[in-house]
Amino acid sequence: MGSITGILNFDSEKRVAEPIIKRMSSVMKHRGPDYEGIYMNDNLGFGVNCLYLSDSVQQPVYNEDKSICVVIDGDIWNYVDVKELVVKKEHSVLTNSSAEIITHLYEEFGEDCVVNLEGSFAFALWDNKQKKLLLARDHAGQKPLYYLLDDKRIVFGSELKSILECDGIVPEVSMEALDVFLTYSYVPAHYCILKGVKKLEPGHFLVCSKGKAFVSEYWDFRYSSPETSESYCAEHLYGLIKKSVQTRLERVKDISFGAFLSGGTDSSAIVGMLSTLLDRPIKTFVVGFKEEAFSEFPYARIVAEHFGTEHHEVEVTTDMALSMLPDFVCHYDEPFADASAIPTYYGSKATREHVKAVFTGDAPDQLLGGSGHHLKEQIRRKQLPIPDFLRTTIIAALTRNFPLDIVDKSKLDRIKRLIKMESYPLEKEFGIRGAYFTEDVKHELYINNLRKSQDMACALEVCEGFFKKTTAIDPLDKIFYVDVKMFLMDNLMTKVDRSSMAVGLETVKPFLDKELMDFVGRIPSRFKIKGTTGRNTKYILKKAISNLVPMDVIEKKKQGFEPPIVEWLRGELKGFAQEILFDSKTRQRGYFNFNYIDQIWKEHQNKAADHTIRIWELLVFEMWYRYFIEGEKKFLKQIEG
User: Fold this and answer.
1) Of 193, 341, 383, 529, which residue is least crowded by CB atoms under 10 Å?
2) Can you say how many angstroms the Cα of residue 78 is from the centroid of all Cα atoms in its chain?
């Protein structure tokens, strides 16, 4: 657990300077405050920061003859199984370090060693005999890894800011990534906000040798022959969740740990599992707001009382949220406009005062059908089964001039938009539905020259690409796949990792167990959403845990985890947002049409329309630009109410 960074110069005579590695590593000290390690080998340098959980082994770690060196951010949950495998191959395992068993596993299987790993990790391995660098990232993208590859070197790091500490790198905005960010409010793994920098995608590894590199996928979330028994699916799912919790519990049992508890089905299931496996009360933590409509306190208390946990509540005030905006921009590296990151950060900060690791209930919404758009698709195909050829011909012709703006200024606009959405095939309709700035609205947002730029690709192709890639046949399963590959891995995992690691808190996510995810790919969609009401979402999970979690929690209406940004932008945040967005410095960027921004700002303030997400995205991007491109670290002076 912690961070990794490094440089490999392709010219074997060009040594890597140790001060550069130390500088790259030091900016990520927050991820691993317990120990800092360095490995230097002529034209190669590694840096690592460690957060000690299951082991306190100093990294880097080596194999028996020290020809292989490994640094890792994260842990290997199936450590026991992998250790047994390498011991049978007559390797000496001297510690309980995840990094050590990777060295031995690599000796046996080469880069394919990652196939045998179940964990939350990003690691770098140097094979000194073959002069080969291996970078790998876990199957679900729980740990991040950026890299910059050119004809002279490869530079990598757990966070983007680490790469920027390397000599000779001048940050420049990728317009393609900016366009995608404005569409989805985050930057998916296909892209990076800085030109020339890439992210190693979840379930992939990179091999670099003799100045050449290739990237390969070793795991994907796949759909295969479905199970036919509902009772078997529920029972086996319960067993896999329990096994996953037990496996992870074994790795963190010797340190202080707890669990996030929102009072919803997912986190309650994890707390319930932990409570049955422990002989002492589990520490639980919930984040809420003074605004009752946004608070999760009441149901979390019910679950905490039911399982007898040692419960802690963290209330996030507006002043707290606004005061952390510079830290928010710094820790997320790229523009990230999911406002729930603010309470996640404060929840992590308060939790870290009590424990070093925390179990979470992340992933079932995307894996098992818990989101509103999943239910919408269920209703659509049951009550409005329109063939695609009718959508793309007759309905498309009738709605050609209908508005597609996501902000509905009247009931008629809303009706027209809903009808127009039916003119698209699923893969395009789903992408448009999730877009905050749709393609037509961007014509108003961008200045003319930028709009014509060859760098501006259609952001919807990201979503459509995943629809083409999935092995799923069922329309709902296709949506689940896209949600897992995009929102879960690129948004949710980013949010949880950056918020928690900013304060040195490790998150443990049992629902992302590889075996469990593989099984979910065999559960039919009719068992995931059964019916057309909110209570029928995540049906198979609710059935699986029906004897574990209180029924009033299982049947409660789903509640989001969003702070009241809409009110903040009309209240306490208004002065600051207006100052940043309409500052002369902002206007001179050359990206946006400020007549349009002025229009949506006035409409939002007058309550003629709700432009919350659009304004928040623009504000986040400008704060990010000042911090990462211009180096302005203290832009938050005073917030006027």
Assistant:
1) 383
2) 22
Instruction: Give the pairing type, strands 204-209 and 212-217.
Output: antiparallel
Judge contact between 457 and 179, C-beta under 8 A.
yes
Look at the block and give the residue holding tokens 């490994």: 70
Task: Tokens for 343, please give them.
Answer: 């309470």
Per DSSP bridges, beta strands 310-316 and 283-289 are parallel
Say how many C-beta atoms besides its own lie within 10 A of residue 433's C-beta.
Answer: 15
Say what angle helices 426-433 and 475-482 make with each other, to 10 degrees.
40
Separation CA 229–CA 520 (nearest Å): 13
DSSP 200: P
User: Residue 415: CB partners within 8 Å, gap ≥ 6?
Assistant: none
What one-character-per-residue DSSP string does 447-470 give? -HHHHT-TT---THHHHHHHHHH-
pLDDT tens-digit series, residues 375-384: 777 766 665 6
Between helix 460-469 and helix 475-482 the angle, nearest 10°, is: 120
573-595 pLDDT per residue, tens? 898 899 999 999 899 888 999 99
Q: Which of 369, 470, 489, 484 is nearest to 427 (CA)?
A: 470
For residue 326, pLDDT beyond 90: no
**Does pTM top 0.85 for this prediction?**
yes
pLDDT digit string (tens) for 464-498? Answer: 899 999 999 998 999 999 999 999 999 999 999 99
